[in-house]
Specification:
There is one protein chain. By secondary structure, this protein is an alpha+beta fold. It has one domain (3-109): 2-Layer Sandwich (Beta Polymerase, domain 2), CATH 3.30.460.10. The protein has helices at residues 3-16, 45-63, 93-99, 101-104; strands spanning 20-26, 36-41, 69-71, 78-82, 86-91, 109-111. It has a six-stranded mixed β-sheet. Helix 1 (3-16) crosses helix 2. The protein starts with a helix and ends in a 7-residue tail after the last strand. The model has no long low-confidence stretch (mean pLDDT 96).
Length: 118
């Protein structure tokens, strides 16, 4: 699957579970590790897990795409889903503020999320 289409499917699956403040960082010019970060927030650990579950289920069932690695699911405060070319970060608000990944990757281009939700 094309990376940008993968980002679109992830954003829609996160939005389905009411993820807040979805940001897409294009890392292709600044990182050799992955091409995109999708970053979003869930209000509670229960919601962050629901967002992660929905992303995994939609990609597996509808696109036959398996997750490479998942971290932080048990605690639910910062869940990382690794799809190779796209890495998803699902935070609770406190953790997102504390780690501030957007600032750490400040050289990355930020893509307009609304264009992926149409």
């Amino acid at each position: 699957m094309e990376n940008i289409k993968l980002v679109e499917h992830i954003v829609k699956a996160a939005d389905d579970k009411k993820a807040k403040d979805i940001k897409i960082l294009d890392l292709r010019e600044v990182s050799f590790v992955t091409d995109f970060f999708v970053i979003c927030t869930g209000s509670t650990s229960l919601q962050t897990k629901a967002i992660a579950d929905n992303i995994e289920e939609k990609l597996e069932e509808e696109h036959n795409l398996s997750l490479l690695r998942r971290e932080g699911y048990q605690a639910g405060s910062w869940i990382l889903l690794d799809y190779g070319s796209v890495v998803v970060h699902i935070f609770r608000p406190e953790e997102r503020d504390f780690y501030n990944i957007e600032r750490l990757w400040g050289d990355a281009k930020v893509l307009e999320t609304s264009s992926f939700l149409n």
